[in-house]
Amino acid sequence: MSKLRTEKVRLGYDEAVVIDGLTVEVPEGKITSVVGPNGCGKSTLLRSLARLMKPRGGAIYLDGDAISSLPTREIARRLGILPQSPAAPEGLTVRELAAQGRYPHQGWLRQWSRGDERAVEKALRTTGVAEIADRPLDTLSGGQRQRAWISMALAQETETLLLDEPTTFLDMAHQLEVLQLLDRLNREEGRTILMVLHDLNNAARYSHRVIALSKGRVFDAGPPDEVVTPDLLRQVFGVEADVVPDPRTGVPLCIPHGLHHGPSKTRFGALDPAEKG
Fold first, then answer.
1. What burial letters (b/e) apply to 105-121, b meaning 16+ CB within 10 Å?
2. Which domain of life does the protein's organism represent (predicted)?
3. So where are the chain's domains?
């Protein structure tokens, strides 16, 4: 069953069309990673799924409902999003950040409650930041900050999480820290997770499904062992690579050994200005 899906969606900025006629599905209760070269539309797709930008054509559905017809507060109760390189006011503590995840549940007739407090405390414990909850974000390591931002998304108590490059600028240990947390949230709580990743090996290891984008279109989509192939590396990323089973997990492991100098599908059309790097 699909949690989120698009039908022939068209997205762009000003005169530039980044995605044209894209149809994708995000399965419920699974981890899905979107991969592809810089500028191919990954971040734009995520922004549209969270209704942070309006499609120029096509439609997006959440649990079968057209997302364009849903109130903003209702979307925030059903979708948690962590954008790329999020920013917070100076001096904001981890606990204060997590508490912001409860705003979609507030209203004129419903103020802060014990239920809100329990949701925040659970989010802090789940992400392993309860012991540093009173520290300002700007005093934390990269991995701690990412876990603090994820705690805010968890405090929303949504069934679906959208994360744009959650491991960007993190070293290997902190990348594993964040990805193992997301894996645990999926396994233990059944959260549906869609994330944009640059690292194909991490996408293959931590995802049930991989969507590979090229020029704003789906080049391939499916289980990692079907999608992550030498042809994908060559055609989408312009890289020659061997793909072998990981000796521990058996999932595909990419070993690049040079650039592909033949015809490539990676660099045509408008680039996605939402993607950095």
1. beeeeeeeeeebeebbe
2. Bacteria
3. 2-91+158-259
Strand order in the sheet with 192-196: 79-82, 160-164, 192-196, 31-35, 209-214, 217-222
Residues 97-127 pLDDT 10s = 999 999 888 766 667 889 999 999 999 999 9
Question: What is the third-level CATH fold of 2-91+158-259?
Answer: Rossmann fold (3.40.50)
Tokens at residue 75, please? Answer: 């979307």
pTM of the predicted protein model: 0.89
What is the rounded CA–CA span in Å between residue 64 and residue 203? Answer: 27
* Helix%, strand%, coil% for the chain, nearest 5: 35, 30, 35
- Residue that has been written with the tokens 């944009």 in this structure: 196
- DSSP letter at 266? S
**Range 200-219 average pLDDT:** 96
How far is it, in rounded angstroms, from Cα 167 to Cα 82? 11
Chain centre to alpha carbon of residue 32: 8
d(CA 133, CA 151): 10
Nearest one of 59, 1, 52, 50 to 26, comparing CA atoms: 1
Chain centroid offset of residue 226 CA: 21
